[in-house]
Design brief:
single chain; mainly alpha; 0% strand; globular; ParD-like; ParD-like family protein
């Protein structure tokens, strides 16, 4: 486990959302990070589809980045 530094405003946003959604602050932050990661990996999916993906991943034993990347096209080209 590592430490992630965030702004005071983001921490306040997390506190409000976590209270409203009955999650710990850490659980709320992790939820937002999962949603954000999957949104970047699958920009064609809407929020409902991402939530379904998360439910399926949980039923299969948890979200694995390698599995989340399986259906993405491989991008080739020069790396800087």
């Amino acid at each position: 486990m590592g430490i992630v530094k965030i702004s005071e405003q983001m921490h306040e946003n997390l506190r409000v959302a976590s209270n409203a959604l009955s999650r710990s602050i850490n659980a709320q932050a992790e939820h937002w990070m999962r949603i954000g990661m999957l949104t970047e990996l699958h920009p064609n999916l809407d929020h409902q589809q991402i939530c379904r993906l998360l439910v399926r991943a949980e039923q299969a034993g948890g979200l694995d980045l390698n599995v989340a990347l399986q259906d993405l096209p491989v991008i080739t080209g020069a790396h800087s």
